[in-house]
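Q: Given only this backbone (330 positions), what sequence would you predict?
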């Protein structure tokens, strides 16, 4: 476990409550009105690709098996891979999710072995990271980089045949044990590709759970809901932990280890979010992958063959940390 010591919380919330049809405007956001804390404990699940999702499930299952159930949090915030995990723990128990992750037989890929003992980065992932880094280098600030990332995604979408949308939704839906939003508060983050504005979906947004998760995980092509298109919620912040402002205890699981690709003075990194929460009176604990498993994330985050070892690494961490986290959480 790591604790990181980040500016006034900038909390966003959805405002619409009726389910829109495909040709209606989707919920817009009020980026100035703080969300009202409705409980004491918040669980934050950050982005991190396919291996990050497996690691999150592993940590949660390890904590659960050691006697600490964090899935009962009053608020769960899911971003990108964390949005999938947030939806998954709402529909199945941690042991069930862990067993499914370990039982899956991922396709093996050939390739050079990386210096950390893992394989070298998958080429499309490396290309994607290079595109993102080039966009970041040309941007002036966080808002500008979101706009440019959205514009780039829309350009890619215009050149595609449109089949990705249906395939991606089916893929995401198949990962979810339940297609229904839970009654407890779950926030799923995304970014509007056309405006660059952050968006948060919840069960009152009129958006299907699978659509919200698909939007939050759309790191390449934009995902369409109604007339709007959305990109990865991690383009706001990789964890979006600041959305837990007002909660007494906040537990953050970050597959990326709190790191960010953007300049630190933009305030998007986890340490900035944690500082904001603590300034507001929250107690915060963070869990990062151990150094021995870091090769499974980053450029290797989309390697399906690394999902089982990532889940096992997370499980071992969860079991090891459960006792010291129990007093904090309960």
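A: Predicted residues:
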């Amino acid at each position: 476990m790591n604790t990181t010591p980040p500016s006034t919380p900038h909390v966003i919330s959805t405002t619409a409550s009726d389910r829109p049809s495909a040709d209606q405007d989707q919920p817009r956001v009020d980026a100035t009105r703080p969300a009202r804390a409705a409980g004491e404990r918040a669980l934050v699940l950050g982005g991190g690709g396919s291996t990050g999702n497996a690691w999150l499930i592993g940590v949660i299952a390890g904590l659960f098996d050691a006697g600490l159930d964090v899935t009962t949090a009053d608020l769960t915030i899911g971003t990108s891979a964390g949005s999938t995990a947030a939806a998954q723990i709402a529909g199945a128990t941690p042991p069930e999710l862990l067993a499914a992750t370990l039982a899956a037989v991922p396709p093996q890929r050939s390739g050079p072995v990386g210096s950390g003992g893992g394989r070298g980065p998958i080429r499309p992932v490396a290309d994607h990271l290079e595109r993102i880094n080039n966009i970041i280098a040309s941007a002036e600030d966080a808002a500008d980089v979101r706009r440019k990332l959205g514009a780039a995604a829309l350009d890619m979408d215009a050149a595609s045949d449109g089949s990705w949308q249906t395939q991606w939704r089916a893929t995401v839906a198949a990962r979810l044990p339940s297609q229904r939003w839970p009654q407890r508060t779950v926030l799923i983050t995304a970014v509007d590709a056309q405006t660059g504005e952050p968006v948060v979906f919840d069960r009152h947004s009129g958006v299907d759970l699978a659509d919200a998760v698909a939007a939050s995980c759309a790191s390449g092509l934009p995902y369409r809901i109604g007339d709007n298109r959305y990109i990865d919620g991690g383009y706001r912040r990789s964890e979006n932990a600041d959305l837990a402002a007002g909660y007494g205890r906040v537990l953050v699981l970050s597959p990326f280890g709190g790191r960010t690709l953007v300049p630190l003075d933009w305030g998007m990194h986890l340490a900035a979010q944690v500082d904001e929460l603590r300034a507001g009176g929250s107690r915060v604990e963070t869990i990062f992958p151990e150094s021995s498993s870091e090769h499974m994330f980053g450029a290797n985050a989309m390697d399906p063959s690394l999902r089982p070892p990532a889940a096992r690494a997370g499980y071992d961490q969860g079991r090891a940390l459960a006792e010291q986290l129990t007093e904090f959480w309960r």
